[in-house]
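Researcher: Quick one. two chains, 353 residues in total.
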Amino acid sequence: MEYIDAMRVDVNGQAAEVEPETTVGGLVALYAFERRHVAVEVNGELVRRPGYDATILHEGDHVEIVTLVGGG
Amino acid sequence: MEQEPFKVGPFMFSSRLFVGTGKYADFDQMNACLAASGAEVVTVAVRRDVLTPEGGKRPKSMLDALDTSRLTVLPNTAGCFTARDAVRAARLTRELLEGLGNRGAQWVKLEVLADKRTLLPDPVGSLEATETLVKEGFTVLVYTSDDPVMAKRLKDAGATSVMPAGSPIGSGQGVLNPNNIRIIIEYLKENDPDYPVIVDAGVGTASDVTVAMELGSDGVLLNTGIAGARDPVRMAHAMRQAIEAGRLAYLAGRIPKKLYATASSPTEGVIAPAAEARTKG
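Model:
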């Protein structure tokens, strides 16, 4: 993905370049995550599902997109 | 034989066995084991989802394989080494399970670990995270060592259940200190007989489960004991029977241990010893 004036964010520990003004909802869609299967944190704070499309990412944000996996 | 229901916080279960979903060869094997174990509660972990390249195919999710309509999912905070990270993980699991409509959204198996080698719980972090999560409305089931004093502190902090380790996670050493487990059960159930104590971690085989239940534990949580067995499905069956055997034996009450023998057959009416019979003939 390359955008003019791309914004750099960190997604699950990997550097990513996204379009400025990308929202959490946009990022989830960009990576084709199943919305029902993920939860999102931006800079250590949980973003509730209804807030995805209103939460705009900023340069340097750390995003964690997590799911449930096998565990004990 | 009819067994009494198992109450943990807002939940009622008929099975006293909680099983993990980790370390299985594939989801089919996992599901076969879950069915064989009879468990109604399954633990899961929260981890970063896989970043797929644009247009790439997503790997199959465990959430597609797991019957979340039937099972109550108990999310853990495994892999967290600070209270802060454990609290973050718990909030993420609540969001995930609410999205899936699973009633497990309201509880968490809290683990705040001290180090990667022993995977022993960090007592200070566990207590701190328990307090925070209880304040946030979580039903907290907290993993701890077999220290009775710590167990009491966690209960006092508002934990719905305290889950002492039989032995280190995944070690298969069984219940190493049955005396401490007994003391924990006595402490926590004093004037509160229904308070649930669940032995978590260290189970290597079926007899370990039975021992934990015979001591008076209300339930057992295990994962590797099944997933790591040579034949996991067969072991899952064994664990189901072991938990029932242990519970029934506990309710039935074992006999006291004695140094010398006590005959099971009548001591009266025994035939004459051979030597005596010959002299009279």
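Helices of chain A lie at 24-30.
Researcher: Thanks, that's what I needed.
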